# Entry
Amino acid sequence: MSFLKGLGLKPPENKCEDKKCPFHGNVRVRGSIFEGIVVSDKMKNTVVVMREYLHYVPKYKRYMRKRSRIPSHNPPCIAARTGDRVIIGETRPLSKTVHFVVLGKVV
# Structure
């Protein structure tokens, strides 16, 4: 878990038996790492994270604010809820739509 030191995240104190947990399971984090806000936690072990970013439009020489909603696996040891600011990391495909996992909450 050496990538966590650079992000300033600590492994969760709670233990879980989830196979898709990056700390207690067999899922590896590779690729993109984003920060966003949880906007929905209605699915079982899955949250929807909204991330805002700026997109440059060359025609008008300005930036446009955009947002994307990313479904992410939410391990029981982290248990993020609506309104939490979280860091998510890219993994192998965990289901049809889920390719990210919640790494921790940002305080």
